[in-house]
Give the backbone structure.
Amino acid sequence: MRHGKKINHLGRQASHRSALLSNMASSLILNKKITTTVAKAKALKKYVEPLITKAKTDSTHSRRTVMSYLQNKDSVKTLFGEVAGRTSGRPGGYTRIIKMGDVRLGDNAEMCLLELVDFNDLYKKDGAEKKAKTRRSRKGKKAEGTGEEVVTEVKEDLPTEQAGKPKKVAKKSSKKAE
C-alpha cells in the first residue's frame, strides 16, 4: 500500500525526474510562463514555490540552497533579482495553472499553461496595489439613513451636559434649487 506517498513519479527514475524538474523550474523562472502537461505542472508547482519563498531572503546560504536545486546561474540571478522583488508582498501561491482544454496529439495528455502570478498583467485588478492600513475614526461618518454628518468634537466652552453629545450638522445639497 502507498499510504502517505504523495510524490508523482512522472514515469521516470529519481535522477531523471530531478533533472526534469530543475530544467523546467529554470525555464519557468527565465520565461515567466511555460506550456506543459497538467501532471508535470502540478509536480513543478510543488518544486518551485519553496524556491521562490527561499529567494525572498537574499543571503549566501539561500542562494547556495537554490543553486543546488536549479543548477543554472542565470535562473538563480533572475530568481533573486526580478522574481523575488515582485513576489515580496505575496505570502505564497506564486504560480498559476491554467488548463488550455486541448490535448497533445501523440499521447492525448491534457496540456496547461504554468505561469508566475505577478508577471501576468491580464489578471491584475486595477486596484491591485494595497494601501497601508490606517486606523479608522468615526469622525465625519454619516448617520444611517440621513444626509447629515455626525460631528463628535468636544468643545471646551460648552456646559458639561452638552459637551459629550454629538452635534448634527446639516449637509448642503449638491443640487441647485430652481
